[in-house]
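Supplementary Note 3. Input sequence used for the single-chain structure prediction.
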Amino acid sequence: MKKISIVLSVLLSWSAGVFAEGDTPNQELLSAQIAYRQALQEYSNHQERLAELETQAEQIRRRLQQAQSELQNIEQKISEAKSAQENANNTLQAAGERLDKIWSASRAY
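The predicted structure, written as discrete structure tokens, is reproduced below.
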């Protein structure tokens, strides 16, 4: 970017002298230099925007990867919780059946 600035400074200094002469070929040269400078600035702007977008995309990819990892952890915890819930349900059902049997037996006496 520094090199571009130096080139533009030299061109602008030189073109100021050319413009003062007022000669048609020199005016065309100045016009071409101005167009080149504008195109270079636009190119630079697009290059900066592209770099910015690529950086944003990389940050999003990292966040996505982290979110996917977190999702896998949560899904594993859900699976473990469902298994624990099933075990608790089986234990509760067995305890309820035992209680019913003992209650029925105690009422028979």
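The helical segments are 2-21, 24-108. The mean pLDDT is 88.
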